[in-house]
Amino acid sequence: MPAANRSRDTDRYALLSKGLLLGWLLVVFAATLQPGGAEDSLGSVTCLVCGTRGLADAILNVALFVPLGLALALTLERPAAALLLAALLSAGIELAQVVLPGRHPTLGDLVFNTTGALLGICVARSWSFWLVPAPSPAGRLSLGGSGGALVILGLTGFLLGPSLPRSLYFGQWTPDLGHLERYRGKVSEFTIGPVAIPPRRLAESDSVRALLSVGAPIHVEAIAGPPIERLGPLVSVYDDLHREILLIGPDRGDLVYRYRTRAASLRLDQPDLRLYGAMGRIEPGDRLQVTLSHGHDGRCLSLNGTGKCGIGFGVGSGWATLYYPEIASRSLAGALNALWLALLCLPGAFWSTGGRLLARHGLLLVAGFVVIPMFSGLSSVSAVEVLGAAAGVSLGFGLQRLLRSRLVPDAGRGMRWSP
């Protein structure tokens, strides 16, 4: 390779590396140097997994710093220097969070940030193996990508299933919980199956738990209060350890139902189910009749006789266990489901170096989309989710073909980009 061409490639490589580093630094600062919610400040400085969603935060911290570690490794020649710089950057962010409202620096953030950077550095040091693997490793990687996607889909169903602790339950009518907005409606009746739920300690906690476990119908009679700007409970059930068991209430124009999931028990995020737009036509003083039931086509949630059946989490809802923004609209939630499935389906297709591997990857995914909802309680895959999965497969295979056509052997770096 001529020296002039090698010099131009080196300059382009350095420019790309610095651009990637600068761009991801901006992402990291935007994600970490802004005020947080009250739940973000739970835990001591020395805790590793802190707060009610500590595991979700740990996973996101690792994921956030993987690209940063990759960019640092591409910019700096020594891996140790890249890791040290990532650790110092994380420590600086934790110190800066001392003065930010709702933020609380912890040892766990530093550990998981640095772990993510280390993973990114390791990927950068072995990039040719991951980007253009030989045929035999490519087959194993493709199978691993397919299997990993199916495992995550199965875990989604497991994590979003109910987790009802054996503890003492308390009924609550329009409670003031502090971390949620107070709804100024007036409840007159709250039942779970045949059991009336008063606004106090429940004498039949075990019976209520059993009824919720089998999907007993829930009915609420109330008078509407003024509209609220974020989620507020109309009725809820908490236990003696202050854990939310179920909640029904308005959130702007939506009616929300959520129950304690296994994800919440594992300190992941707590998504909810919504009847979009149901509260938009309700005026203060209107009568509210909320009914939740389970039928052959899934959960049915209705307000004043108008509602929807088949309400449930889909195979693409796994993202919501990591970070669930309560302001998510129906279209945004659908788009995030599709994007999540695209990301899950991309790796197996990326490592599918031939048509046979790609066909195997596709068949495994189709089987997973059909079988997993049957046994996990997830909703059947939607058209938007199918499009997202197909986009991930197409993009992954297309990127692999592009890389194999452009990356050629080079004595200096092992591989180089061919224009």
Could you please describe the fold and organization of this structure?
The protein is of the alpha+beta class and 419 residues long. A hairpin with a 2-residue loop joins strand 6 (244-251) and strand 7. The chain is built from eleven helices and 13 strands. It has helices at residues 3-32, 54-75, 79-96, 107-125, 127-131, 135-159, 205-213, 262-265, 330-350, 355-376, 383-406, and strands at residues 169-173, 186-192, 195-196, 218-223, 235-239, 244-251, 254-259, 273-275, 287-295, 298-303, 306-311, 407-410, 414-417. The radius of gyration is 25 Å and the shape is globular. The chain has three domains: 1-125, no CATH class; 133-160 and 315-419, no CATH class; 169-312, no CATH class.
What number is the mean pLDDT? 89
Q: What amount of the residues lies in strands?
A: 15-25%
Structural class from helices and strands? alpha+beta
The end-to-end distance, rounded to whole angstroms, is 13 Å
User: What is the total tally of β strands?
Assistant: 13
Q: Structurally, how many domains make up the residues?
A: 3
Largest sheet: 6 strands, antiparallel
- Strand order across the largest sheet: 3-2-4-9-10-11
String of helices and strands = HHHHHHEEEHEEEEHEEEEHHHEE
Characterize this entry briefly.
The chain is an alpha+beta fold and 419 residues long.
